[in-house]
Design goal:
With 260 residues, the protein is α/β, with parallel strands linked by helices. It has a single domain (11-259), classed as NAD(P)-binding Rossmann-like Domain (Rossmann fold, 3-Layer(aba) Sandwich). It contains ten helices and seven strands. It has helices at 20-31, 43-55, 70-84, 107-117, 119-135, 156-175, 194-197, 209-222, 231-242, 245-252, and strands at 11-15, 35-40, 59-64, 89-92, 138-143, 181-188, 226-229. The protein is globular. The protein starts with 10 loop residues before the first strand and ends in an 8-residue tail after the last helix. The structure holds NADP nicotinamide-adenine-dinucleotide phosphate (NAP). Residues 15-22, 40-42, 45, 65-68, 93-97, 116, 120, 143, 145, 188, 190-191, 193-196 line the site of NADP nicotinamide-adenine-dinucleotide phosphate (NAP).
Length: 260
């Protein structure tokens, strides 16, 4: 009887792994047995996350990456695939959430948001999608937001970047649904992470980090097409989509940017 080589662990490429939801997700993915490529700009944080994973017996590879640098994304993913084999799961979680009050509105500010929240994702997809389609297998996951469901005060650039991301991922999904490549869109509401720490506005139904990471991980494992949570805020936001502008505007009036 010939000895069979052990199957290679699934290779997961995760962006935004240095804090918050990405970090919490990284531990869960590693416990599943994946080799997790941890990426973000703060390398010291990534190394600390990698150490914790290895201490638990998991596999982690920390790699510095700014997702807003298209060439760096292409180069990094090329190098990772050359060294570790094809990426099986791409999880695009990196994002920024700076507010943009109307009085500070500039195209540059909107562009900066899109460079990370939208093009940071599209660059990663561009790097791995051809291989996934060729192999007829793979999973692309994007972390969008309930903020992308309808316009929000002082969030024009963030909400627009997430709306664009949600529709982009859905468009890809419906096109490649029989290709063997799955697409998952994750839309959290408010979660206690460094991103929301500085928010002064009300954050209804805000969730604990670990609870949110658990829902995200379940959706990734099940290859759910679209998950929106917590259900209470997702329901409110879905209802908001059906509201006529006059009512929607009145509901949001309390949160007007100029009252912040
Ligand atoms: N927290 C919430 O309430 C909430 C709600 C809905 C959606 N989300 C989404 O969830 C995702 C994770 O956010 P979080 O709440 O966990 O916030 P966080 O703790 O601030 O994490 C953001 C992550 O993105 C990384 N990142 C930001 N810009 C980057 C860049 N240019 N290149 C590479 N990495 C970059 C950060 O790493 P470095 O700074 O080290 O690069 C960090 O690891 C984001 O996409 C966010 O929009 C969060």
């Amino acid at each position: 009887m010939s000895a069979q080589a052990a199957p290679r662990p699934r290779l997961t490429f995760l962006t935004g792994a240095s804090s918050g939801l990405g970090e919490a997700l990284a531990y869960r993915l590693a416990r599943e047995g994946d080799t997790v490529v941890l990426t973000a700009r703060r390398v010291e944080n990534l190394e600390a996350v990698a150490r914790k994973i290895r201490d638990e017996g998991g596999l982690a590879v920390p790699v510095a990456l700014d997702v807003s640098d298209h060439e760096a994304v292409m180069r990094t993913l090329g190098a990772v695939e050359a060294e570790h084999g094809p990426v099986d799961r791409l999880i695009c979680n990196a994002g920024i959430g700076d507010p943009l009050p109307a009085r500070q509105f500039t195209t540059d500010a909107v562009r900066r948001m899109f460079e990370t929240n939208l093009y940071g994702v599209t660059s990663c997809i561009e790097a791995v999608l051809p291989g996934m389609l060729e192999r007829r297998s793979g999973h692309i996951v994007g972390v969008s937001s309930l903020a992308g469901y309808r316009g929000l005060p002082a969030s024009s650039s963030y909400a627009a970047s997430k709306a664009a991301l949600t529709v982009l991922l859905e468009s890809l999904r419906v096109e490649i649904q029989t290709s063997g490549v799955a697409v998952t869109t994750i839309c959290p509401g408010f979660v206690k992470t460094p991103m929301t720490e500085r928010n002064k506005h009300p954050m209804p139904f805000i969730m604990e980090l670990e609870d949110a990471a658990e829902i995200m991980h379940d959706a990734i494992r099940a290859k759910t097409t679209h998950v929106a949570f917590p259900w209470q805020l997702a329901t409110v936001v879905r209802a908001g989509r059906l509201m006529p502008d006059a009512i929607y505007d009145r509901v949001l009036a309390k949160q007007r940017a100029d009252k912040r």
